[in-house]
Amino acid sequence: MNFELTDEQRQVRDLCRDFADRELRPNARRWDARHEYPADAVRKLGELGLLGVAVPAEWGGAGMDSVSYALAMEEISRGCASTGVTMSVNNSLYCDPLLKYGTDEQKARFLAPFARGERLGCFALTEPMSGSDASEMRTTARARGDEYVIDGAKNFITNGPQADAVLLFAMTDRAKGHKGISAFLVPTETRGLTRGKPDEKVGIRASGTCSLFFEECVVPRRFRLGEEGDGFKIAMGTLDGGRIGIAAQALGIGQAAFEEARAYAKERRAFGQEIAKLQAIQFMIADMATGLDAARLLVLRAAALKDRGQRHTAESAMAKLFASEMAERVTSTALQVHGGYGYTTDFDVERHWRDSRITEIYEGTSEIQRVVIAASVLKG
Ligand code: CAA
Are 86 and 42 within 8 A, CB to CB? Predict the structure, then answer.
């Protein structure tokens, strides 16, 4: 089995690591404290090709593979988890389905400028009363001549406050259940679309999240992505890729906390020696390192399957489930290594702990990942 990265994959990882160390890590604590969206850093990600990593150059992207994307997501999230999720949503949840299902006209308008980083996309599936049970959505899109009229509300929309376009899922025929869901591209300047105030969150505070409200919001028929009724499959297939991005984000958060705990353990002295010499701390370090490596292997396997064009639903779910739960454990242990200092905002480790928590919830909770994994395992 070959675990070697290609030269291109190593280059993108090193470029992102360097960018994260220079531009993200030194600022992430301040952005978090002020709930400040890192607009300048996101613009620079676009210039580096990191907002359309796996989109071919003809549609404005960097034309790399999913393994490169996962490596980039880990490194960027290691620097700033909020910047990581902003990047992840634009790449996996917005550009990826556009590339797969968009017409050339849709790609020219809704993909290329977003992959180039000139514009930002978001993905609107979740509603106030339908999260895990995504097919229970209430938002409707009523066909009227050559257009659709959209009514409803979506919430917890990452990138919602900044987005220039929404990939929206709405019911076109409720009687058909999940087969009555369709996908639409909605520019955020469309009349009838309004945004709620940004949500106040426990972590990833520098990323934007808000509700979106649709009231008699009219889009032309040519803004529908895929056929009528394809929406649920588009959403689920898209999340198979998105979960690799979130797993890589969790990995980056865990890695950042681990590096800080390791450095602190070599500095801090207790009982006449550096605490890294104490077996209690060594066991924590060993468990953290093992969890991170195991998660990295699962993330890279899922990404490699995606690159080979193979179904990776269960593998993505396993990567996200394991990496997110590992990240919560690792960040909590890293905080413990820091003792009382870890519980203050003078150190970054408390932020990593808060940031890790959402990776067990968005793009499908840990419970939903277990449902997906069990369905696949029991089928075999
Ligand atoms: N790829 C393609 N098709 C899929 C699929 C996949 N991964 N998963 C399911 N389908 C298809 C099935 O084959 C089935 O098709 P047929 O009817 O033709 O046979 C259809 O979809 C329905 O499948 P299920 O019966 O399994 O659907 P379900 O209603 O039981 O739901 C679920 C399955 C896994 C629970 C799903 O609802 C789910 O993933 N829920 C979680 C939603 C989620 O992840 N939300 C995240 C929001 S986005 C976000 O969080 C972004 C952010 O902020 C960063």
Answer: yes
For residue 242, the Cα-to-chain-centroid distance in whole angstroms is 6
Which of the four CATH numbers 3.40.50.20, 2.40.110.10, 3.40.50.300, 3.50.50.60 does domain 122-229 have?
2.40.110.10
| pLDDT tier, 30 (very low <50, low <70, confident <90, very high otherwise) | very high
For residues 318 and 78, is the Cβ–Cβ distance under 8 A?
no
- Whose alpha carbon is nearest atom 25 of ligand 1? 178
Please tell me the distance between residue 168's alpha carbon and the centre of ligand 1 in angstroms: 15
Residue 90 Cα to ligand 1 middle (Å): 20
Residue 275 and residue 281: Cα distance in Å, rounded?
7
Nearest to 351 by CA among 233, 265, 281, 252: 252
Q: Which of 23, 74, 328, 363 is catalytic?
A: 363
Is residue 105 annotated as a catalytic residue, yes or no? no
Topology, domain 232-379: Butyryl-CoA Dehydrogenase, subunit A; domain 3 (1.20.140)
Residue nearest to atom 51 of ligand 1 (CA): 363
Return d(Cα 54, Cα 50) in angstroms, integer: 9
Protein fold of 7-119 = Butyryl-Coa Dehydrogenase, subunit A; domain 1 (1.10.540)
Given this model, what pLDDT does residue 278 score? 98
Ligand 1, residues at Cβ distance < 6 Å: 85, 89, 93, 123, 125-126, 132, 134-135, 156, 158, 178, 232-233, 236-237, 239-240, 313, 362-364, 368, 371-372
The predicted-structure confidence for 98-129, as pLDDT tens digits, reads as follows: 999 999 999 999 999 999 999 999 999 999 99
Q: Collapsing DSSP states into helix, strand and coil, what is residue 333?
A: helix
Of 93, 94, 178, the residue with max ligand 1 atoms within 8 A of its CB, to mutate for a pocket test, comes to 178
The pLDDT mean for the chain works out to 98
Model confidence, pTM = 0.98
